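Fold these two proteins, one after the other.
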Amino acid sequence: MSEKILSAEDTEITEARKELNELTEIVIGCGIEVHRALGPGVLESTYEMCLCRELTLRAISFERQKPAPVFYKGVKLDYGYRDHRWPTSLEIKSIEQTSAIHDAQLLSYLKLSGMKVGLLMNFNVRMLTHRVQRFSDRQKKFHCSSVFSVISVVKSSA
């Protein structure tokens, strides 16, 4: 068997992925906690506010609904969309069923923001874990077995 020797860059990438996965798990846990408390059928803005509170309680830093520029053909458009600051993009829905357009919307947010991972959470379900989708800038989409509009979170240094 051949052993692969990891370079410092490989190790750094592996650590960054590990931290991002851990952060994603925390955000999913926050979403589950909010869903347990509120249940389905509440306004998306209510889930967003409660999710922000849950992130605050867990000492996860974030910025909510921050105007984010879009660069188009060499021109900076100041308010292309609203973003939340964190390494993952989070799109919150409270609808009967998500569709391909919601997937495409989140992938657009990932592309525009340069973020690596995004979560699409539909709170209008009996069990939130059935309607959380995780997207990667490389892998596109896969379902989570365990996981506003868009919120960005940065890992707290505390």
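Now the second one:
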Amino acid sequence: MQNGKRGQQGQFPDGIRKADIALVVVCVLAAVLTGVFLILYRREGDVVRVSCDGEQLAVFAFPAAGIQDRQYYLVWVEDGQMTVSNCGNAPVIPDGGAFNLFSVADGVVRMEAADCRDQICVRHRAVSAVGESIICLPHKLVVEITTGEAHLRGTEKEQTGQRNLGDRKDNSQDSAEETLDGVVE
């Protein structure tokens, strides 16, 4: 077989067949169409839902578009009580207890600080689209973006709350022997 010439029926010199080329073209086309679909149908959220261990703690709407200030929300556990509070634009972290601090600005939610050992939630990128979330596994905390007024209870636009954790172990003080994400120390 000579270079550049066809060998057997429908086969190129390097063993590539027409069907192989067609399969690659179809896969690339499917990937491009999927990407276009995801970009065109991405919906920005307007509601933030905070939950711990599957139980909803707070639901609030994003600040109005004209408000440029970053709003900070503090989630902390002290004496078995988990509380979510709006710190305004000046966050204050209380002494003692486990905490997560996240901010909301311009339709984007970002985890600013946490006292968990692994800091994965803090290093997570900011979220803004419906269905995106930031999760803190040690604190079992989920900050999720949703849409619509149906998620807001009652007539209030913002709700912050408390939850009694009862006998839940405070996971923020991990033991030194415990592995972190499968890494043996």
